[in-house]
Amino acid sequence: MTKPKQIFISILAVLFVFPVMGTFAQKAATSGSIEVITTFDYPGAGNSTLPQKINERGDIVGEFIDPNGVTAGFVRFSDGSFSDPIVDPNDTLGFTEGRGINNSRTVVGDYIPPDGNLHGFFLSSGTFTEFDVPGAVQTAVLSISDAADFTGTLVDGSGLQQAFVSLGGTITSYSVPGAPATLAYSISDSKRLVVGYYIDAAGILHGQYRDANGTLHFPVDPTGSVGTILFGDNNRNWVVGRYADNSGVTHGLFFVPPNNFFTFDYPGSAFTSLNGISSQGNITGRYVDASGIAHGFIARVTGTPPTTPAGPEMKANVSPSKVAPLNQSPSAWGGAMPAR
Q1: pTM of whole model > 0.85?
Q2: Residue 34: CB partners within 8 Å, gap ≥ 6?
Q3: CB proximity list for 256: less than 8 A, separation 6 or greater
Q4: How many CB atoms are closer than 10 A to CB 157?
Q5: Is 306 within 8 Å of 28 (Cβ atoms)?
Q6: 232-267 residue pLDDT tens
Q7: How many CB atoms lie within 10 A of CB 302?
Q8: What is the fold of 24-309?
Q9: How far is residue 68's CA from residue 114's CA, in Å, rounded to a whole number?
């Protein structure tokens, strides 16, 4: 299979799993907890399942990777049934990703056609609509709100990878100063928060968010992180993502701006990722088992999980990075572009 052009900066992101025996929770004495309700896998032997977002109806969009390495999108509906594989009609390389879904069940994502570059798509009522930010070499659409506002990332003609947000049909691109790559992964329906991550000049991943006034806040790094990604947010300004530590373990992350976090780990797994969260507090994500297969799960926030203050916000080109470069071993992150 022809490999896609490496214009998008590769971020490593794993895929593994095992079955859940009932509901379990992680919590502290006072506030609340995150409880796993169920696990799920896209049908088919050996598939790795990578959920990405969850809407208020409980529908989940994501992608699965079959044993041959072919990637296709899917929707897991709130009744537990699955859609047929989502494959963009112009996908010739076996790479279509489902990235976002709103309450109208419009799905957004990206795919690779013969030119080897990523391009975005919208899928509504069975109809695909291709999308590229005007002038961009590559485009990935990573989320969509109920108002049809959407976010993503693009690569321009100079090779700079920028985040973008479309509000009411107006597209605004932006970057963390000095960062070669910035990505916008989710926008809340309230439009108060756009979350994502960026890669600094040293190749280290940091979380970042853009508030309703357009101000960028960065970095978001839990203590001990060597790489942080923010994937999803809701109307309560609750944010989910993941971070890796220097031992190679990847932890699920619950973040409350401006600087508080709670760590969630799937029991027995060295890799947990929290990817999407609804305003009802339902979370979708994945964990990885010892055989290297990724499994999806649905979790629920009860109360407000207790949080610990993160480090102080730093501004690029003012403060040096306080973390070591990301451990890029497959056991830590796996492979994806952009992260998933």
Answers
A1: yes
A2: 25, 26, 27, 252, 254, 262, 264, 283, 299, 300, 301, 302, 305
A3: 237, 238, 239, 304, 307
A4: 8
A5: yes
A6: 999 999 999 999 999 999 999 999 999 888 999 999
A7: 13
A8: Neuraminidase (2.120.10)
A9: 19
200 with 321: CB under 8 angstroms?
Answer: yes
* pLDDT tens by residue, 81-122: 999 999 999 999 999 999 999 999 999 999 999 999 999 999
Paired tokens of 228: 């942080």
Structure tokens at 165: 């947000």
Both tokens of residue 197? 């991550």
| AA identity, residue 269 | S
| Residue 305 in tokens | 């999980």
Give, in degrees to the nearest 5, the angle at Cα 134 between 128 and 136.
95
- Cα Dmax for the chain: 54
Q: What ranges do the domains of the chain cover?
A: 24-309
